[in-house]
Amino acid sequence: MTSSLPQHERPEGAAKPRKIRDGVFWIGAVHWERRLFDALIPLPDGTSYNAYLVRGSEKTALIDAVDPDLADVLMGQLDRVDTVDYLVSQHAEQDHSGAIPQVLARYPSAKVVANPKAKGMLMDLLAVPEEAFITVEDGETLSLGDKTLEFVYTPWVHWPETMSVYLREDKVLFSCDLFGSHIASTDLFATDEVRVYEAAKRYYAEIMMPFRSVVEKDLAKLAPYDIALIAPSHGPVYPRPSFIVDAYNEWVSGPPKNVVVLPYISMHGSTKLLVDRLTASLVEKGVTVELFDLAVVDIGKLAMALVDAGTIVIGTPTVLVGPHPNVAYAALLANLLRPKVRFLSVIGSYGWRTKAVQTLADLTANLKVEVLDPVFARGLPAAADYDALDQLATRIAALHKENGFA
Ligand code: FEO
Predict the structure, then answer these.
(1) N or C: which end of the chain has fewer CB within 10 A?
(2) pTM higher than 0.90, yes or no?
(3) Residue 10 in domain
(4) Shortest-distance atom of ligand 1 to CA 158
């Protein structure tokens, strides 16, 4: 996607700004080939970095830049834009700010509009000079003539400096990473809501879930706004805002579901026997189970399952007295993502000695869970182990019912 040609030698007719409202254009870049974010998060469907151009009767604002890898795509679209007066930075992370230096080089009189926290970060991360900034407070407005930008602080979606921008006259909310989805597509709008729901849920799980309590406050803060269009920083624009807002309210605040997420590894088959028995026993009692073999897992899928799960059961063999390293990794990940899961247990196997339960308990210390009795088999599971698994399933089903997980 990235052109190796210098700007002035690129052919005409590459990406063009795309209108989303009169005077409002998507001017971002679609990264079809990207398969990993932060050297951690799988991107099975690529992603996009959405920048938006807002032309008022007197001034023009660019909302966000793009990832530096695709800076030439943004700059090519700006070939058609004579003036940028303001470069609004909603978020200092480089996938939205990385091309700011190139934009400033093209429009040296443009001012970077950011909140004070973002200003400091942009100076640290990109060496944007202090004199380039105008800082804005929460609720402050900026007139572009016949269009007005209102800055709404929405912290921790998912950095401390993140803010949204509300375009009053057109009722467009530029929502930063909030409501985003990693999808590479030529579809500007979220017309295939089934596809976007899955991608947005995955994105929420990986990026927003650790800050659930603050995101809940951000959603409450945005609730009174009359919003006709949500324009996030990744993925398609939402012409039906209630679709994604309702989904977020459910993910953030809804009760856990009658679901057990069961990530596991089995080396010689004993742990898998336990996993299969517990799964069958839970299913028999009306509990949905989602299994993840950690030898082949897409961690994004695992994160997504954790959004709604009532219980996590971790399955592990014993490796050098501890859990399998892949299991430790998954436990650490769950601990970082802090889902609303309420119960946790560990099942597994060992040859002569194990400290796997204690290690996994330490690795999941952030989770506000009730820990249920573990079931560990020495070698192949015996009848007593299967009985213990059935009891664990009975306990989980009862707890889900008592707590109203449906
Ligand atoms: Fe899409 Fe937090 O950057």
Answers:
(1) C
(2) yes
(3) no
(4) 2
φ/ψ of residue 323, rounded to 5: -70, 160
Q: How far is the CA of 181 from the centre of ligand 1 (A)?
A: 10
pLDDT given at position 9: 54
Question: Is residue 248 within 8 Å of residue 179, measured between CB atoms?
Answer: yes
Q: State the Cα–Cα distance between residues 230 and 71, nearest whole angstrom.
A: 24
**Ligand 1 atom with least separation from CA of 176:** 1
Residue 12, domain member (yes or no): no
Identify the residues whose C-beta falls under 6 Å from ligand 1.
91, 93, 95-96, 158, 177, 233-234
> Is the confidence at residue 390, as pLDDT, over 70?
yes
Q: Is 334 domain-assigned?
A: yes
Residue 159's domain comprises: 18-253
- Give the residue from 253, 286, 301 where a domain finishes: 253
**Number of compact structural domains in the chain:** 2
86 residue type, one letter: Y
Q: How confident is the model at residue 2 (pLDDT cuts 50, 70, 90)?
A: very low
Measured distance between the N- and C-terminal CA atoms of the chain, rounded to whole angstroms: 45
